[in-house]
């Protein structure tokens, strides 16, 4: 089982050195971009670019060799899901393996599965915390997954568990007796389960 | 970019057998971050402190967003023309943003409002009442600057709004 649960990413006396990373932050909300940039700067990452939607992001990627994309989902005219699809499968994609973290207030199981099917590497549920974002970045570096190409999918490997166990009506929580949004912990559990 | 690739017959989704190609692209990120591992505790503290420094600006923005959704709903109520998508977009921002600065209760209200408005093209009179209740609750959070989950009263209110929006379990 591949371990991508955030609880297993810890503090270290010889940590990763992130200062050389180049990151593209994609969000239509100025304040969320500011929050994410504030965290990234504090983590030592100086190579930052911003984009306000998927179209602008794809344009930026033509001149900015990003190592990592952090993207919101709900943006217009081109949302984060379409951006990921274009990165993975677009004719003009500059790097089809580019790691992508989806950061979204969408936290239903259906949303997470949709993001995974589009080809995201990690999913971070808003609200954003410094620790949560840091853990996702470290996770992508330390636990890279192989890519898979099939007739209908190209992206980080999804096959580890039996997808069919999540077929059926979409519920908003892993606990079918509970309602409300999934927490980051729930999301990690779901991703781990999907990853198997 | 060099990469290792292999094709094999296997199941990608645990169901029917399908051929897929497994590719191990070079870990370009690892090449840039050295041989260490894990998070830097000093940097994490610095990031948390940096968030505190922008808290006031963010809080003011959150409160403006609550005013914006309240004003928009008021205009819709006056005109009798409801555009749920416009309300949804603000509620969606609130649920995502508010929790990042410890306004968890406001985030919860945004979330249940999103659940109500998602995919709606119009609102029934009952749904209009529910939106109104949510906006009243959001304004109360702003007036009293209620942080965290709002304690017992806050959670009872959140559960009450949630029960109006979501069908009962079982």
Counted up, domains of chain A total: 1
Chain oligomer state? heterodimer
CATH class of the domain at 47-164 in chain B: Mainly Alpha
User: Biggest interface and its residues per chain?
Assistant: A-B, 62 and 62 residues
Structural class category of chain B: mainly alpha
| CATH structural fold name of chain A | Rossmann fold
Mean pLDDT of chain B: 88
CATH class of chain A: Alpha Beta
Question: CATH architecture of the domain at 47-164 in chain B, please?
Answer: Up-down Bundle
Q: SS-based structural class of chain A?
A: alpha/beta
Q: How many DSSP H or I helices of chain A?
A: 6
What proportion of the residues of chain B form beta strands (DSSP E)?
5-15%
Report the major sheet of chain A: 5 strands, parallel
Number of helical segments with 4 or more residues of chain B: 7
Explain what you see.
The complex is a heterodimer of chains A (196) and B (170). By secondary structure, chain A is α/β, with parallel strands linked by helices. Chain A has a single domain, classed as Rossmann fold, CATH 3.40.50.2300. Chain A is 35% helix and 15% strand. Chain A has a five-stranded parallel beta sheet with strand order 2-1-3-4-5, with helices on both faces. Chain A has a two-stranded antiparallel ribbon with strand order 6-7. With 170 residues, chain B is mainly α. Chain B has a domain at 47-164: Four Helix Bundle (Hemerythrin (Met), subunit A). Chain B has helices at residues 28-33, 41-53, 55-79, 84-98, 104-117, 125-144, 151-165, and strands at residues 4-10, 18-24. The longest helix of chain B has 25 residues, at 55-79. The chains are: A alpha/beta (196), B mainly alpha (170). Strand 6 (147-149) of chain A pairs antiparallel with strand 2 of chain B.
Quick recap:
Chain A has helices spanning 30-42, 54-63, 80-89, 109-118, 130-142, 184-195, and strands spanning 22-26, 47-51, 68-71, 100-104, 122-125, 147-149, 154-156. Chain A is an alpha/beta fold and 196 residues long. Chain B is built from seven helices and two strands; from the N terminus they run E-E-H-H-H-H-H-H-H.
């Amino acid at each position: 089982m591949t371990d991508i649960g955030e609880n297993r990413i810890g503090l270290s006396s010889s940590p990763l050195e992130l200062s050389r990373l180049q990151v593209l932050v994609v969000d239509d909300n100025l304040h969320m971009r500011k929050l994410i940039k504030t965290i990234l700067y504090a983590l030592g990452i100086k190579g930052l670019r911003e984009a306000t939607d998927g179209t602008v992001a794809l344009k930026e990627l033509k001149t900015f060799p990003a190592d990592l994309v952090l993207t919101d989902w709900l943006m217009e005219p081109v949302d984060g899901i379409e951006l990921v699809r274009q990165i993975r499968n677009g004719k003009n994609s500059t790097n089809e393996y580019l790691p992508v973290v989806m950061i979204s207030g969408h936290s239903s199981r259906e949303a997470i599965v949709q993001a995974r099917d589009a080809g995201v590497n990690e999913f971070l549920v808003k609200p954003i915390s410094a620790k949560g974002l840091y853990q996702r970045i470290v996770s992508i570096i330390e636990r890279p997954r192989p890519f898979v190409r099939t007739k209908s999918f190209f992206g980080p490997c999804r096959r580890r568990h039996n997808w069919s166990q999540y077929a059926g009506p979409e519920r908003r929580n892993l606990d079918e007796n509970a309602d409300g949004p999934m927490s980051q912990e729930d999301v990690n559990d779901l991703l781990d389960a999907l990853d198997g | 970019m060099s990469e290792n690739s292999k094709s094999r017959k296997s199941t990608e989704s645990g169901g029917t057998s399908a051929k897929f190609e497994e590719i191990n692209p070079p870990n370009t990120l690892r090449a840039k971050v050295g041989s260490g591992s894990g998070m830097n505790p000093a940097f994490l503290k610095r990031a948390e402190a940096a968030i505190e420094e922008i808290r006031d600006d963010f809080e003011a923005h959150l409160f403006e967003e609550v005013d914006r959704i309240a004003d928009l709903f008021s205009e819709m109520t006056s005109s009798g023309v409801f555009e749920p998508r416009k309300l949804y977009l603000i509620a969606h921002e609130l649920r995502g943003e508010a929790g990042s600065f410890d306004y968890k209760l406001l985030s919860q209200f945004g979330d249940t409002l999103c659940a109500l408005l998602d995919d709606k093209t119009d609102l029934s009179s009952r749904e209009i009442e529910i939106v109104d209740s949510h906006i009243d609750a959001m304004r109360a959070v702003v007036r009293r600057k209620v942080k965290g989950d709002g304690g017992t009263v806050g959670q009872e209110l959140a559960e009450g709004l949630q029960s109006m929006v979501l069908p009962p379990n079982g």
